[in-house]
Amino acid sequence: MRFIHTADWHLGKLFGQRHMTEDQAYVLEELLALCKDVHPDALIIAGDVYDRAVPPPEAVNLFNEILTRIAKQGIRVLYIAGNHDSAVRLDFGAQLLRASGIYPAGIVRAAEPPVVLSDEYGDVYFSLIPYGDPPHVREAFALDENLSFDGALAVQIAAARAQIPLSVRSVAVAHAFVIGGQTSESEHALSVGGSDQVSAENFAAYSYTALGHLHAPQRAGAEHIRYSGSLLKYSFDEARQKKGVELIELDAVGAASHTFYPLTPRHDVRIVSGMMDELMHKDFDLLPHDDYICVELLDMDAVLAAHEKLRKIYPNLFTITRPNINVNRLSSTERSYERGKSDLHLFSEFYADVTASEMTEAERRELIRVIDAMEQGARAE
């Protein structure tokens, strides 16, 4: 049995103020090409198909197109709701979709039957375990006691395992924060207060567990319990992560092997570090300048019109950080007149940038007079 494990597409996401739908469509074309090349038995999406409960129409249209094109390749698609998805909306049309080889699981149910797929070695049972916080699990299973996230997941898995015969190959698909996982800034916490983490031991009985929620590709307590990571980089602390999908192969006895296939984005997410003079040099950064960029500006002093200057180099500049800036470097005594000189210097740079010419000597004298008058007025208050 061969299947692709992916998760956390976050269709319809805004990164900063930029809609990512075109970037997502671009990388999903790569995924479709990979499906055509390796022709897996199934594609699994382990939650957070959308970025919010009510996704924009273009995100829904994109998902519809991708599902249709994968189904036309004869590949079954299994997907669950994550904490970003609307369980009810993702569950819409489930019975009709199953007839086309597409198996959604949005709503937490007490008796969700497994999806059974077959290969030359027999059946493989897939437990689709949609994201459920403790109150929803309590309601679905008609329980009286309070549950932790770990306890709620244990209830879901116990119900799922009860429907799987002994000694068969099985796969869990879940959306959870397994203890010890590497987090990213773009992930939303599953709970405010209390522990939202769960034990990897919950998945011990499965041949493989396909996880979603954490955006970095990683193992979760064992090699056969894994996060595929998100489809794209959705924050700058993910800049050094590799994004892609996992191709999983189950042998006759259920031993799982995995191969990571990287996906190349339309625009990479990068952090570029340097002094302003270095950054303005055309040969300083040889990677594509239309990537999504955070500049780590290393100058210690104020830099005039930094955003405007850097945006000429990086049209998709998102933000600038200043790790070395020291606004208090000068003493108050040094500032009494040096401040006037510094303001003169900064305004001279600003004037040159705006007018493409230098100030005349008369203009400089007038500016010095204005700065001195302002300083005297400030001291008199």
UniProtKB/TrEMBL annotation:
Residues 266-354 form the Nuclease SbcCD subunit D C-terminal domain. Keywords: DNA recombination, DNA replication, Endonuclease, Exonuclease, Hydrolase, Nuclease. InterPro entries: Calcineurin-like_PHP (IPR004843), DNA_Repair-Maintenance_Comp (IPR050535), Metallo-depent_PP-like (IPR029052), Mre11_N (IPR041796), SbcD (IPR004593), SbcD_C (IPR026843). GO terms for molecular function: 3'-5' exonuclease activity; endonuclease activity. Transmembrane segments: none annotated. CDD domains: MPP_Mre11_N. Belongs to the SbcD family. SbcCD cleaves DNA hairpin structures. These structures can inhibit DNA replication and are intermediates in certain DNA recombination reactions. The complex acts as a 3'->5' double strand exonuclease that can open hairpins. It also has a 5' single-strand endonuclease activity. Heterodimer of SbcC and SbcD. This is Nuclease SbcCD subunit D.
